[in-house]
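Chapter summary example.
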Amino acid sequence: MTLIMPKPVKDPKSGIYYLRVRVPADLVNAAGRVEVSKSLRTRDPAVAKERFAFEYATLQRRWSAMRAAPAPLPLKQIVSLAGRVYQRLMEDLDQEPGESSIWEGVARLNAQAASNESALEKWYGPSVDELLVEEGISTDKTTRTRLLKEVQSAWEQATEQQHKRSRGDFSPDPNAGRFPDWRSEAPPQAHLSGPTISALFENWKRDHLANGKSETTVRDFAQKLSSFTEFLGHEDVERIAPRDITEWTDYLRHEKGLTPKTVGGKYLAAVKTVFKLARSKFLIAVDPAEDVTVKIPKKLRSRSPGFTEVEAERILSAANRVFEHPSNMGYHNKLACRWVPWICAYTGARVAEITQLRKEDLLAVNGIHQLTVTPEAGSVKARHYRVVPVHPHLRETGLLDFINAAEQGYLFHAGAATAVDAVKRSGNARDKIADWVRNTVGIEDNRVQPNHAWRHRFKTVGRNADISIEYLDAIQGHAGRTAGEGYREYPIETLYREICKIPRIEAI
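The structure predicted for these 508 residues follows.
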């Protein structure tokens, strides 16, 4: 899984770039805030990127130090860290030390601070903090006090040498070698011995693809788990508690503005699926997501989710005339708007199932024309093929003539080199139809979905026409309500008999 890394954020008003990142969930209390925001002081994107990388790395080291358990450092390491301050002072002023009077004043300040704890913290505390952040070290109070004194001593030594340089004496410092080279003697942090989120994702991905399932789902899950990892600030599954997952879902809802349905049905569902599989394979001892839920309020319904008769006639009438009106819409998208609503009106199929139809998916069996909805053409929700008889009114509209005259391949897009691209193009055609229904036909009621409403309407009209629910399910590809229903198959003659009960839609 490729993690989505933070990037510089451009202020829309000033044009200045900022570092804006969320504090990892386990450090929010210690940091006292949920987000870090810092100006990068530039409007140049290249400069912003460079400064962001530096500031973000510094932030990561600071967070590592906050997570580390405070521990004492031996004197050798303390003196070595102080030597860093000495070396930087000497290197920064290597060519031009400045006036002697400056260093005489600095020497007085050094002497005043030597025996004053508050002065030590005031003058040398920032240097100490910088050193500790660089190494990701968290020290106890005693070590910090010793380090402050050693940094003060390093300043005294550097001040003496710069004072000599200011008077033209650039001879080497005979005591420069007193600072040992830095070598961390603290026990190295062990690499994660437990599973990571990325490892569990890869395990799920391998099974998912081996079962012939969609690569689109893989990309979607990668984005969802990346969001989760970015929120946590780490990938260690053993450190994840149910509360961390709950806080993430709250963050998505209240700070990112996602709906409960999206958070629960997509983001949390992805995490639950990956963790559940890992638990079933004994890759993790406990599934932290098992008991986490997102309450989804019941949707208020103030009208039927299917198109009314007036809406259906309006859309299909507009479909009949889609080639009569000039527009910027591409040829294949016009074909989709012309025929897909008609097919959905008389089949109750999902729009994406129809936008991926190919010329070869039209067959005639025993004199009955049928459309084959198959995973071979793209994405089918249940991953099962089904055949749908062509309603007599569809023949009268000229659908069969259109398909028979079409070139081999996909009917409503130009096709693609890979199955993934074909699914994407079918999805694009689906979205174009929805946009056309809303913005061109003018079905603006947000209580009804511009594509899926055909599916609801077909079920309602079918029941009113006394078509048994099992036949409607077979035509629409709905799963059976019992295991036994999965063994049922209906001859095309039977389905044709039932679909002929659907009344004609009188669209001009």
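To summarize the output: DSSP finds 19 helices and six strands in the chain.
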